[in-house]
Design brief:
By secondary structure, this protein is an alpha+beta fold. It has 2 helices and 5 strands, in the order ααβββββ.
């Protein structure tokens, strides 16, 4: 009888046995992971991400429109403020002019009274005109413009305007000898300086 060599039985491969890692199946880390579905366009193809640049552009546009609206409102408020200030300034000027004119009404009344009695005693007329002058000077002082008509005081370029220089042995050099036209006001509120003659320096 023929002899058969006895060999160990070879087991058939198990169809359900696991495949060794790296032999044929890709590792799990390389598998694509599921993610959120991408929005699709009208033709069914994937469209742009709705939460991406389109939303940022809309936000920027809204912010710019809001800033423009606030800028227009600020310009309108500024224009209204300017117009209101101009109206208030004009009203204050009108009130001040009215107050000044009312302060001079008694002066005008006294001048008319003096002219009415022009044919009477000349001395009384002179006194009446002098009183009216003093009244007008007092009104100017109350308005903030005091009168400067002093003689014998040192020359002050802020108060005096030299129109002549004279030789006066009784007056110290550089002092006011004569006031030709009184001045009114001081500093920034000066209406005009006094026109004076000054003693000559030796």
């Amino acid at each position: 009888m023929p002899t058969h060599s006895q060999e160990p039985d070879r087991a058939a491969p198990d169809p359900v046995a696991p495949v060794p890692e790296g032999a044929g199946r890709p590792p799990r880390g390389d598998l694509p992971q599921p993610g959120p579905p991408r929005p699709e366009a009208a033709n069914g193809e994937p469209g742009p991400d709705a939460a991406g640049p389109a939303r940022a552009e809309d936000e920027y546009t809204a912010a710019i429109e809001e800033l423009q609206d606030r800028w227009r409102r600020a310009l309108a408020d500024l224009d209204n403020l300017r117009k209101r200030h101009a109206r208030e300034l004009e009203r204050e000027r009108a009130v001040e002019r009215s107050r000044t004119a009312a302060a001079f009404l008694p002066v005008v009344d006294n001048l008319e009274l003096a002219l009415t009695h022009a044919g009477a005693d000349q001395g009384a007329i002179v006194e009446g005109v002098r009183a009216v002058r003093d009244q007008a000077v007092n009104v100017l002082e109350l308005l903030g413009y005091p009168r400067h008509a002093e003689t014998g005081v040192a020359f002050d370029p802020a108060l005096h305007e030299v129109v002549g220089v004279v030789q006066d042995p009784e007056a110290p050099p550089g002092t006011v000898v004569q006031v030709l036209r009184p001045g009114y006001g001081d500093g920034e509120r000066q209406l005009r300086p006094a026109a004076v003659t000054v003693a000559k320096r030796e």
